[in-house]
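in:
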């Protein structure tokens, strides 16, 4: 198990994020950002009686009982994975034999991350061993503010929590999976860790509420249970997500969902106007990317302008991050979440382009056998504009370098190919 822990830490992108964990704990305790965490040491228990809630690292059962005797009867114990200095998840450690998972909030897709999750699940089945000792205990005298909010929204009095600390970057947020006493998922809360992330979450709440005005979409998207300011933070609380993990290959479920989505508010946009719109955004972002990207961007815009000059582009509602890990599959349909990048009057093909690009880039998934790769070649101008727009967004989000490199290669590859078929209206 020690080797598994080392593998998890080596694979983690969450280097030096103990400070981020402190931010999450402050939110959980309802503390302001500048408030010091009330960390309790066993030898100092008598001195912490004035605090309404305390945190004890690597708490033992005896330590939990000691705090309980001092009035801290509301207790939440978490395993910190993979470590205190590289936290990615806080998973509940129920001490009364309850079979609560909490790891449903994380669906791995790459072979390495699937293996690592299997190791965690296996460790839980055998008593956690090493990781169970990397824990923290949150103990309070009364229900925490977050518990009160959860009870008000769901009606459940005894809520269990699991935390996923989001991807580092300018739009970093964390997600809380809320469960009842039996481990059934009540819903998911999302809270921002950075200023731009709050804007994203506010936008997502507005999008979901607007999408619910379209009856055909309601079965495919989460319901907003609560959205608003709370204890100095913005909170987006959504309904539970059902179904199996979304497939990494393009299927009829994807086609049917996007057909429904794009049919809700269809528009047509002149190709020339779309090129101008993307060029304007690109010219704002390109200077900070360097001379190479300036050159590549000019070539891509020139090719797109040539291909789309007289075209009429089918547009509509755009999810913005339509990928396997933002979907679930039910018996008959696709369930889609994470709408924070959604937009209106955006090319209908961009969601498909994004799915193909992300599964190739992050999962090394080839789509040649699926027969859908030609959609990019036969719509070269639209694909080039999608790539430039995607590069601009990734740059704003401070995304990893390999995502930008993949898009650079795709632009160069498609610039060098003659367009096969002009985009039809």
């Amino acid at each position: 198990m020690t080797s598994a822990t080392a593998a998890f830490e080596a694979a983690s992108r969450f280097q030096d994020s103990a400070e981020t964990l402190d931010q999450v704990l402050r939110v959980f305790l309802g503390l302001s950002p500048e408030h010091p965490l009330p960390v309790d040491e066993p030898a100092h228990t008598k001195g912490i009686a004035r605090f309404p809630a305390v945190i004890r690292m690597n708490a033992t059962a005896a330590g939990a009982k000691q705090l309980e005797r001092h009035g801290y009867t509301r207790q939440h114990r978490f395993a910190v994975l993979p470590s205190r200095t590289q936290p990615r998840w806080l998973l509940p450690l129920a001490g009364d034999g309850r079979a609560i998972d909490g790891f449903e909030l994380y669906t791995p897709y790459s072979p390495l991350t699937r293996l690592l999750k299997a190791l965690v699940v296996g460790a839980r089945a055998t008593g956690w061993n090493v990781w169970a000792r990397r824990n923290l205990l949150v103990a309070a005298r009364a229900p925490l503010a977050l518990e009160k909010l959860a009870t008000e929204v769901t009606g459940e009095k005894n809520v269990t929590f699991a935390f996923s600390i989001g991807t580092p970057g300018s739009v970093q947020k964390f997600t809380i999976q809320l469960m009842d006493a039996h481990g059934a998922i009540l819903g998911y809360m999302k809270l921002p860790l950075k200023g731009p992330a709050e804007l994203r979450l506010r936008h997502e709440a507005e999008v979901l509420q607007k999408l619910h005005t379209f009856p055909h979409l309601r079965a495919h998207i989460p319901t907003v249970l609560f959205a608003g300011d709370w204890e100095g933070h913005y909170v987006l609380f959504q309904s539970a997500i059902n179904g199996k993990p979304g497939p990494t290959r393009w299927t009829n479920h994807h086609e049917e969902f996007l057909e429904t989505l794009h049919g809700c508010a269809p528009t047509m946009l002149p190709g020339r106007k779309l090129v101008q719109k993307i060029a304007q955004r690109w010219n704002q972002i390109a200077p900070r990317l360097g001379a190479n990207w300036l050159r590549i961007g000019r070539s891509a815009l020139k090719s797109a302008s040539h291909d789309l000059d007289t075209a009429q582009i089918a547009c509509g509602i755009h999810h913005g991050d339509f990928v396997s890990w933002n979907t679930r599959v039910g018996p008959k349909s696709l369930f889609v979440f994470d709408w924070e990048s959604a937009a209106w009057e955006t090319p209908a093909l961009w969601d498909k382009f994004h799915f193909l690009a992300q599964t190739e880039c992050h999962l090394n998934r080839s789509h040649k056998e699926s027969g859908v790769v030609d959609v990019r070649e036969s719509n070269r101008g639209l694909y080039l504009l999608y790539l430039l727009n995607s590069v601009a967004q990734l740059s704003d989000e401070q995304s990893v370098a390999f995502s930008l490199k993949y898009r650079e290669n795709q632009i160069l590859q498609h610039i060098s190919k003659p367009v096969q078929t002009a985009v039809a209206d």
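note: The domain at 245-415 is CATH 3.90.1200.10 (Aminoglycoside 3'-phosphotransferase; Chain: A, domain 2).
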